[in-house]
Specification:
17 helices, 2 domains, globular, 4-stranded mixed sheet
């Protein structure tokens, strides 16, 4: 995707040269060839690494045969719009800088394309044009082309900040602009997660105890909305201790959700299959569910760890469940006797996390019996 903003900047450079009357076809050709050669060198190094690690064939399998279904299964334009809107709401006021950065970038582009007689070479218009094109092109590809994950939408913000800092009204602010900037900083600090009383109270603990599960939970839990992949670190530490007591080794663990996959690094083991968080793959690739489950079961995992909250179990029920640390099925969650791994015996539970013991005699006869 980076080729889109890169191409926009290259075209912007060619337009600047053309408007200034210094454009030469030979120079443009050499410039384009240099960029192409540089890309081939970087891409060649990446291809060499893929080949050296045995990932070349799987890489092409994903690109040619899997990526299309991923794009369609995660939702259409409705989900894309919802993700964009949620980003601008939940990450305000920083996300709202786009309301200023986009018009500023458009104006910079218009100014840079003014007649050459009105633009001096040292006016800075060329630099503002390139930065504006980089910002606009990256914003367009992040919002409309690349899948709109929040971490994707956050990237243009950094470029937009650079664009705003280079703006004369910010670089040399008037009294009114100074007041607006001060107000923005105050609002940004007031709504920042680290400025909340719960987080501020954890600062001494961060200095004295370090990055413990307790500190992580103090800083990460209690969010106003469910965050996919957010772990409960104290419960996860209990699961890790249990698995250590079972002398678990490489290939013996399958983490069903992305909120539990930190167990692989905590226990220094490799997963039982190439699918690191199985539930996501089953959702993203419905036509390949049987293939995915066949691969997972072929690894013969001893244990499967699931996060009942990621499976639709309410966080409020999980919080109030009086049996949250007993190896029993969660209160209020319908049993799933015909679905793997939920039909396996529960041998340990820590809050949201269930640990299933998978025996050879209890593996599903058909890989289509699996479910998120």
């Amino acid at each position: 995707y980076v080729i889109i903003p890169a191409a926009a900047c290259w075209l912007g450079g060619m337009i600047i040269a053309l408007r200034r009357g210094v454009f030469r076809a030979s120079t443009a050709t050499c410039d384009a060839a240099g960029l192409l050669i540089g890309g081939l060198i970087a891409g060649g190094a990446g291809c060499w690494w893929l080949s050296a690690t045995g990932s070349w064939a799987p890489f092409w399998e994903i690109v040619l045969h899997w990526s299309g279904e991923y794009r369609t299964s995660v939702g259409g334009w409705g989900l894309r719009l919802a993700t964009n809107l949620s980003y601008y709401v939940y990450y305000a006021p920083w996300s709202l800088l786009a309301l200023v950065a986009v018009p500023l970038a458009v104006r910079n582009c218009i100014d840079a394309l003014a007649p050459p007689a009105k633009v001096s070479p040292d006016s800075g218009a060329a630099g503002r044009l390139l930065l504006s094109l980089l910002y606009l092109a990256w914003l367009v590809q992040a919002s409309l082309i690349q899948l709109s994950h929040e971490y994707v939408l956050a990237v243009p913000l950094m470029i937009g900040l650079a664009l705003l800092v280079a703006w004369d009204r910010v670089a040399r602010p008037s009294p009114g602009m100074q007041g607006a900037l001060a107000l923005f900083v105050l609002v940004a600090l007031a709504v920042h997660p680290l400025a909340r009383p719960r987080a501020l109270a954890a600062w001494p603990l961060c200095a004295s105890a370090g990055s413990t599960p307790e500190v992580k939970d103090r800083l990460s839990t209690g969010a106003k909305r469910s965050v996919m992949g957010e772990a409960h670190w104290q419960d996860l530490a209990k699961v890790a201790d249990f698995l250590r007591s079972q002398n678990i080794h490489d290939g013996e663990l399958a983490c069903w959700d992305d909120s539990s996959q930190a167990l692989y690094t905590q226990l220094h083991i490799s997963p039982s299959s190439r699918f690191v968080h199985v539930a996501n793959w089953l959702v993203f690739f419905p036509s390949r569910r049987q293939e995915i489950m066949h691969d997972v079961l072929a690894g013969r995992p001893r244990f499967v760890v699931t996060d009942v909250q990621m499976a639709g179990y309410s966080a409020f029920l999980a919080r109030d469940d009086h049996q949250r640390d007993e190896a029993v099925w969660p209160d209020g969650m319908p049993p799933r006797p015909d679905q793997f791994p939920w039909n396996q015996p529960i041998v340990f539970r820590a809050g949201r996390y269930l640990v299933f013991a998978v025996g050879d005699e209890s593996l599903p006869a058909s890989s289509t019996e699996a479910s998120r």
